Structure formats: C-alpha cells, structure tokens
Amino acid sequence: MLDKTYELVCRLSSDTALERIKTLLSKEWVKYRADNHSITSIKTPLVLAGFDPRGYSHANWVGVNPFGYVSGVEVRCEPGDNGLTKVIVRIDRCRAFVLAASSVALGALVASALPPLGGAIFIIAFSCAAWFGTVSFLGGSLIKREIADHLNEAPRQRRWYVLE
C-alpha cells in the first residue's frame, strides 16, 4: 500500500528514455543513482517552507514539485516488442502517508471545536481531501504524468502569453 507501481510504454529506446527521466529528476531536485537500465532516487527534496524553490515546478500544470511528497522513486526500462520500451515506475509514498496523517490530525483538532455533527462531517471531508490530494494525486498520478510527458517523442512546447 505504501508503494505504487505504474507501467508506461513509449516508442523511445531504453537509453533515450532513461536520459529523459534523468533530465526530469535533475530539474526536480531529485538526487539519483543510475544503473544499467534503471534509476533509483537517493534523495528527494524535503520542502519545509513555502519560499523554498524546490517546492515548485514548471513541469506540470499544478506548479508543485510532486517529488517532494514522496520518499523515493525507482524507474526501470525494459525493451519490448516492436521497438517499444516498457517503463516501470515504482513510487515509495511513505512521506505522503505521513503528511496526510499529520493533516488529518490537524483537521481533527479543528473539528473538535465544532459542534459534533459539523465536526464529524468536517473531519470526514478533510480526511478524504488529504488522502486524495497528497497520497493519490501528488504522491502518484502527478509523478506518473510528469514522467509520461517527458517520454513523449515530441515534448509539449510551453507557450507564454502576455496579457495586456
């Protein structure tokens, strides 16, 4: 339950895929060790304050560095059929569980100041939001999405518009 595994398929060679993933991890402040056909994170950024630049990212639509919410990432590339490469991403979400649990504890403290029915509704809603936001989204699907975006053959071009 702490680990989440995703399988992605791309048209790149395994070496090219690993290079793109290394580039992504470097941009997101993740220190890693690269072996033959795998990458294992050694240290993910631990963001303690809102002004820390390691907590922000330009690689996703949310603007948050999701690697700061997980304990580790392991990526393995395996050559597949028809020139396709299978990329297996394993995410250690222990830090996300701790962050969600601390948020729920804080929410329980706030809920204790509310009337019983309102407090129960608040703590249930707050617990669901903490779980889905921290563990499921930031600690899972957003990381998978970032890696998949970097494995595209033609990465998206970001366009900046000036509003007048």
Tell me what you see in this structure:
The structure is a single chain. With 164 residues, the chain is an alpha+beta fold. It has one domain (3-151): 2-Layer Sandwich (TATA-Binding Protein), CATH 3.30.310.80. The chain is 41% helix and 21% strand. It has helices at residues 14-27, 94-111, 116-151, and strands spanning 3-10, 31-34, 38-43, 72-79, 85-92. A 5-stranded antiparallel sheet has the order 1-5-4-3-2, covered by helices on one side. Helix 2 (94-111) packs antiparallel against helix 3. The longest helix has 36 residues, at 116-151. The chain is elongated. The N and C termini lie far apart (49 Å).
Summarize the structure.
The chain is α+β, with helices and mostly antiparallel strands and 164 residues long. It contains 3 helices and 5 strands.
